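Render this sequence as a predicted structure.
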Amino acid sequence: MMNRARALTLFALTFATIGLAGFTVAGFKYDRNNIIEKTISDFRLKNVDGSSISLSDYPNAKGFIIIFTCNHCPFAKLYTKRLNKLSKMFDSLGVPLLAINSMDTAIYEDENFQKMQEIALAEKYNFPYLYDNMQTVVKDFKADHTPHAFIIWKENEVWKIKYSGAIDDNGQDPEIATPFISDAVEELLQGKKVAKSVTSSVGCRIFYRK
């Protein structure tokens, strides 16, 4: 009986400590519903127009909206117009949008570079659509679905994740959706901490190659 009581006490103290000190899941540090910090390395990926794009190509950027998306996912397709709108809203304010396709073409045949080019042209993307064929970038971010949205912000010349999760909370109807991404960018532009920095991304699973 005494051993069981001690075990229960230890269990309770452990969760109390987690609540106070934060915890780590899938490489992210959290304080309840907030990211504590994760630094992202610069990268260079091929764009659908044939150029290569890196974060360092935007020396005046305050931050970036990074969207992991793909060609085939029905849920990702719901957000095409919203991505164009976000890019138009924030690019001139120093927060460009970059979309990245990290899907494994061995699992999803429609995720090849040629198909990416066709979709970007048909949907009139006003932002770069980058091909992460080696999955190096998605593994750094630890994105798990398409779409999975991130906001990274420059602090002391390094890029730190300030938001991870969904673009908004209503794929079907943008008019009544809570705009997680635009709210977070506005807060950061005002020098504020992101009030809700973690939400759940919903969509098609990103499978990592071994």
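Summary. The first strand starts at residue 23 and ends at 25. Confidence is low (pLDDT under 50) at residues 1-28.
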